[in-house]
Amino acid sequence: MNLNATLFAQFVVFFILALFTMKFVWPPLMKVLDERAEKIANGLAAADRGKAEMAAAEKRAQAELASARDEGQKRINDAEKRAQAIIEDAKKTASDEAARIIAAAKADAEQQVIQAREALRAQVAALAVSGAEQILKREVNATAHADLLNQLKTEL
């Protein structure tokens, strides 16, 4: 065999193989590689969107937490104000009740003083009658001299 013919035959077979590969093997292989590259690009884009959504969700969560904190603090402040108002109301009620009790006690004491004075006047009148009886050495009739005794009571 001739070396030139062998080289020529190998060149023709290589050229046919190259054409066959370019026509039938290369396009599906490139299609698979392009699809794979597209999937990778879509995956990277989805990852970027996920990161962006995650950052947005984190910001929303932080805003919600801040809002909840503010709302909680507002409720605590309102509760403290309400507690102060209740305490002030209770103090006022207690003060009014104390004033009422003191006034009732003063009125009761005044009534007892009046009763004690009346009892003391009656006792003084009885002592005066007894003393007059002792002085006169005779019995003084209390019913007969009631007007005189009443006048004596009022003078005392």
TrEMBL record:
Superkingdom field: Bacteria
Q: What UniProt keywords are attached to this protein's entry?
A: ATP synthesis, Cell membrane, CF(0), Coiled coil, Hydrogen ion transport, Ion transport, Membrane, Transmembrane, Transmembrane helix, Transport
- The answer, when asked if Transmembrane is one of the entry's keywords, is yes
The record's Pfam families line, in alphabetical order, gives: ATP-synt_B
Provide the protein's localization. Cell membrane; Endomembrane system
Coiled-coil parts of chain = 51-89
Residues spanning the membrane: 6-26
Q: How does it sit in the bilayer?
A: Single-pass membrane protein
Similarity section: Belongs to the ATPase B chain family.
Free-text function comment from the UniProt entry: Component of the F(0) channel, it forms part of the peripheral stalk, linking F(1) to F(0). The b'-subunit is a diverged and duplicated form of b found in plants and photosynthetic bacteria.
Subunit details: F-type ATPases have 2 components, F(1) - the catalytic core - and F(0) - the membrane proton channel. F(1) has five subunits: alpha(3), beta(3), gamma(1), delta(1), epsilon(1). F(0) has four main subunits: a(1), b(2) and c(10-14). The alpha and beta chains form an alternating ring which encloses part of the gamma chain. F(1) is attached to F(0) by a central stalk formed by the gamma and epsilon chains, while a peripheral stalk is formed by the delta and b chains. F-type ATPases have 2 components, F(1) - the catalytic core - and F(0) - the membrane proton channel. F(1) has five subunits: alpha(3), beta(3), gamma(1), delta(1), epsilon(1). F(0) has three main subunits: a(1), b(2) and c(10-14). The alpha and beta chains form an alternating ring which encloses part of the gamma chain. F(1) is attached to F(0) by a central stalk formed by the gamma and epsilon chains, while a peripheral stalk is formed by the delta and b chains.
The name on file for this protein is ATP synthase subunit b
